[in-house]
Amino acid sequence: MTKEKEHVKCLIIGSGPAGYTAAVYAARADLKPVLYQGLQPGGQLTITTDVENYPGYPKGIQGPQMMEDFRAQAERFGADIRMGYATAVDFSSSPGKVIIDENKEITADAVIIATGASAKWLGLPSEQRLNGFGVSACAVCDGYFFRKQDVAIVGGGDTAAEEATYLAKLCNKVYMIVRREELRASKAMQHRVLNTPNIEMFFSHETKEITGDQSVSGVTVRNVKTGQESSLNITGFFVAIGHQPNSVIFKDWLDMDKNGYILTVPGSTRTNREGVFACGDVQDHVYRQAVTAAGSGCMAAIDAERYLAAKGIH
Question: What is the pLDDT of residue 1?
């Protein structure tokens, strides 16, 4: 079966803050960008409720509405936004080749990758049901909503330790649930956590169930050694067991770190392949914020524009 084929000047893969911002800038630069939204149109923000830390929204905004605003702005300047997701790529030569939905082949003079990252979850039905209603994978994003309340965080690495200490500044009490007998975090982070008076450690414990009807009201934890269960009264439950960059289809073509984050040339969004750029959480394991993703989306579009101009592609 012959695949449908199309050539575009600028192809953007992904539709979170990075992808949509890249689309705004690319469209204004007359690159006629085509953007495919991916499996989760709007990205991680579509499973977030209130966003209060993005500049320009003094009263806050719902995550899904914010992404609708981003999309509308990109479309206003002529970005071609489509349903569909990239299933394979071939960056062996330029222009790059991207397969959409396994049946359409697109060649593009410039490719901007903005596929983001996905939080790792525990896999509990209650976790999914209460996601956005007290369950969160980002303490920096959502901790403010739990000021002076009791919360729990699960995880034992540097991210979990950092987020626990962040929450401890805002919350009355932070229960830290760690499956192992000790933290995996660096010694400096361990010292900080263990010396924060309102963080209570639950070593050798796992989360059995998050409780609550409309929102989180508690969590049941189980001692993995004794099997004894305990119930904690909380209003917020934070998962900090890591993120997974959505980069699998690029692994044979692009340089990545050991965790699968795409490596870019420092100070730019350029990858090791000519004409291929990466922005947002798929290449950022440090900040992972909507505003930093948007900023790197802007960078990617400018990098792509300059690349195409240098190549004489108009």
Answer: 53
